[in-house]
């Protein structure tokens, strides 16, 4: 019987830089220092929370991957408890060595320890391999979340209005700017 080289532990603030590199595609657009500061906050919040944790995987003592686990509900409307297994990532040089399996097992074990009958996993839409892995583990698709900027959404909603209901050139930012200019001109 071979001994597994994968060990799991709770994330610490010292892991913030490694997590920044690992989860770079998931973090807000900012410089690396701001992203690391964000992750330090998430790590501290997780350490103080009974409903959230970040699990780090090490392979033979080296940082190899991580996952964020959160106890939540299936949706805000469906209050069935679930453990959300979010952002299971394995550093490329440690793939196919049992790291991903260990991270997913950590989420499943946490659900069992808390008497929660469902786990929910998520991977970015463009990560075909990760999505296929989750499917092989028995996770079915439940929803697709789409994200866009508020301004893009406003533009598309305005385009869909009948022409008679559209206000030509209406943009809330322009209206507010025009009001400010009028106020400044009338005050001066």
Explain what you see.
- The chain has 188 residues and is an alpha+beta fold.
- The chain folds into two domains: 6-136, Gcn5-related N-acetyltransferase (GNAT) (Aminopeptidase); 150-187, no CATH class.
- It is 39% helix and 21% strand.
- A five-stranded mixed beta sheet has the order 1-2-3-4-5, with helices on both faces.
- A hairpin with a 7-residue loop joins strand 3 and strand 4 (81-90).
- Helix 1 (16-22) crosses helix 2.
- It is elongated.
- The mean pLDDT is 89.
Named at the architecture level, the CATH assignment of the largest domain is 3-Layer(aba) Sandwich
The largest sheet is:
5 strands, mixed
* Average pLDDT number: 89
- Could you state the CATH homologous superfamily of the largest domain? Gcn5-related N-acetyltransferase (GNAT)
DSSP summary, beta strand count: 5
Residues in β-strands, percent: 15-25%
- Helix content range of the residues, please? 25-40%
N-end to C-end Cα span: 84 Å
- Structural class by helix and strand composition: alpha+beta
The 3D shape can be described as elongated
The H/E string reads EHHEEEHEHHH
Instruction: Tell me the name of the CATH class of the largest domain.
Output: Alpha Beta
Strand order of the largest sheet: 1-2-3-4-5
Number of helices: 6
* CATH third-level topology of the largest domain: Aminopeptidase
Number of structural domains: 2
Roughly how many Å is the radius of gyration?
22 Å
Spans with pLDDT under 50 lasting ≥5 residues?
A: none
